[in-house]
Write a structure and sequence with these properties.
Layout lengths: L1 H13 L11 H13 L2 E6 L3 H12 L5 E5 L5 H9 L18 E5 L2 E4 L27 H13 L2 E6 L3 H13 L4 E5 L5 H10 L5 E5 L2 E4 L11 H11 L50 E4 L2 H11 L12 E4 L1 H10 L8 E2 L8 H10 L4 E2 L5 E2 L1 H12 L26 E4 L5 E4 L7
Parallel strand pairs: 1-2, 5-6
Antiparallel strand pairs: 1-3, 3-4, 5-7, 7-8, 9-10, 9-11, 12-13, 14-15
């Protein structure tokens, strides 16, 4: 009676009606049943066969913790038993109906899902722990690994990706459309160590990696608008505590064209109030760091001496930085001819800069530096329009070019906030400087 009940139980577990009990003893069959039902993922397979190796590779890539049982050879009694149980699902390698090979058997949640190749296609692993990645030590230098982990853990949203994959741009476009502030690290080199490390940890089928609050969500293809609805994306962003005040696709530079990144490839540091590399608008930015310039030694020395604004630790002459509205005004007033050697980057400076200057003009107030020195907004606005056009379709009135790059200085007398993409609220108050 006990043997009969065991046979019935095995048939229920495997969904098979053929009697395969002659291949193994009742104790052996019970042992196999126990292994399958007590482990979330179980792989039986012949060593050195492609289906078995593919399963191990996929499971390790995805970090799936699994139980493995190897067959001793093609005459292994357990192999014959499982082959008998799943005869209806097994076919030849060239079978037209896509049946499974008989050299390996993969079980998830106690159910047979197919041969080892199926592991490359699955994304659901019952309750299996996802902490069993292969050893990825040595791919990155310890300092580089620590820096990357710190960036991922401390950023509400982080995007790492290979530039050659459309998946990277899909995620980047969704974020930039909403103005999401996120950490971004994109590499052009397929052999980049960061890329190889993240593939080692999260799977070689990923060519981009998106994290929310340090947790891996998936690759960029998951952010296609046909896959991830806008409401779900906004929920992910809100739960991560990410701001939507960074550069949007609708943001423009002073020239009227879409705003470009201020930080460039040869810059050693990333600029911007939220360190996105762009002079984006943020209501918490008391100094309005929207002016992208190519830095000069003359300006650095003058700003440190006269305005209490030492940027030498974050930007060097020739580098690019988002400086405050008052800082550009200071260069214009002190050196109307060459603006202390800085160059205004029209396509990289936020067009909202004009609104800031106009507000101070309308209020009959001056911009002030951290040291308390006052500067005229009207003079600065005249230079902006002369160099980059007036924003109404009229281009520059002078062949001069102006650029500046500097670290963010916080103006203690200017605070700017945004009510919408087209509306601006500017109030005066105290804010720190950097």
């Amino acid at each position: 009676m006990a043997i009969l009940l065991l046979a019935i139980g095995i048939k229920a577990t495997f969904g098979h009606k053929q009697d395969c009990s002659n291949y193994l003893s009742s104790h052996q069959r019970l042992s196999i049943k126990h292994v399958i039902e007590s482990n979330a993922v179980v792989l039986f397979g012949l060593e050195e066969y492609r289906c078995t190796m593919a399963a191990e590779e996929a499971l390790l890539d995805k970090g799936v913790c699994f139980k493995k049982k190897s067959f001793s050879g093609i005459n292994d009694s357990t192999l014959k038993y499982l082959k008998c149980l799943h005869a209806d699902s097994i076919g030849s390698i060239d079978s037209a109906n896509g049946k499974n090979m008989w050299h390996s058997y993969l079980y998830v949640g106690g159910k047979y899902v197919g041969d080892g190749f199926k592991a490359t296609q699955l994304n659901s692993w019952d309750n299996a722990a996802l902490t069993c990645h292969r050893s990825c030590n040595g791919i990155l230098k310890p300092t580089e690994l620590a820096d990357m982990k710190r960036a991922i853990l401390t950023s509400p949203v982080a995007l790492y990706g290979w530039g050659g994959c459309p998946c990277t741009n899909i995620a980047r476009t969704r974020f930039s459309t909403l103005g999401v502030c996120f950490t971004q690290n994109v590499w052009p080199d397929w052999e980049d160590p960061k890329f190889k490390y993240l593939q080692c940890v999260y799977g070689k089928d990923n060519h981009s990696f998106i994290f929310f609050k340090g947790k891996f969500y998936g690759n960029g293809f998951k952010f296609d608008d046909k896959v991830l609805p806008a409401a779900k994306l906004r929920s992910l962003i809100a739960d991560a505590g990410a701001r939507e005040t960074c550069v949007k696709k609708t943001d423009h530079g002073l020239s009227g064209r879409p705003i470009q990144s201020c930080t460039q490839s040869n810059d050693g540091t990333t600029t911007g109030w939220t360190r996105t590399g762009s002079c984006n608008w943020d209501p918490s930015d008391g100094g309005y760091h929207e002016v992208c310039v190519t830095m000069s030694d003359q300006f650095l020395k003058s700003s440190a001496k006269n305005d209490g604004n030492d940027l030498s630790s974050v930007v060097q002459p020739g580098g690019h930085w988002c400086i405050c509205a008052w800082a550009f005004a200071s260069a214009v007033e002190r050196d109307p001819t060459s603006m202390q050697g800085i160059h205004l980057e029209c396509d990289r400076t936020n067009s909202k800069l004009r609104n800031v200057y106009q507000h101070f003009i309308d209020e009959h107030k001056k911009l002030q530096s951290p040291s308390g020195v006052s500067y005229e907004a009207s003079t600065a606005l005249q230079y902006v329009n002369k160099l980059c056009g007036d924003g109404g379709g009229r281009g520059p009135t002078s062949p001069e070019k102006s650029a500046v790059t500097t670290k963010k200085e916080k103006n203690p007398h200017l605070r700017v906030g945004v009510g919408s993409a087209s509306a601006m609220v500017i109030t005066h108050g105290a804010s720190g400087g950097e």
